[in-house]
């Protein structure tokens, strides 16, 4: 289910960014999705949905921003994941 929200911001922001409102709102969603993903608050799939992208598009976007989709707390987690692959 989609939820609609209202976002208020100074009109000068659009002028400063030289963007239209639709692009600005889309970009806010993408930035939020990336941030929540990096904080491990959303999965790749959930973040992609928030960003209105497919998982593949979102993963490619992350790669373009040099953000790894492999999030391990420590070396042991990485080695365990490799062992179980």
Automatic annotation (TrEMBL):
Q: Name one Pfam family in it.
A: UPF0175
What InterPro entries does the annotation carry?
A: UPF0175 (IPR005368), UPF0175_domain (IPR052264)
Name the protein family: Belongs to the UPF0175 family.
Name this protein carries in UniProt: Uncharacterized protein
Organism, by scientific name, is: Haliovirga abyssi
- List the taxonomic lineage: Bacteria, Fusobacteriati, Fusobacteriota, Fusobacteriia, Fusobacteriales
């Amino acid at each position: 289910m989609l939820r609609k929200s209202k976002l208020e911001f100074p009109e000068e922001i659009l002028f400063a960014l030289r963007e239209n409102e639709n692009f600005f709102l889309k970009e806010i969603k993408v930035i939020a999705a990336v941030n929540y993903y990096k904080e491990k608050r959303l999965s790749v799939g959930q973040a992609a949905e928030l960003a209105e992208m497919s998982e593949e598009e979102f993963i490619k976007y992350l790669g373009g921003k040099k953000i790894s989709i492999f999030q391990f707390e420590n070396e042991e987690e990485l080695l365990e994941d490799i062992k179980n692959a």
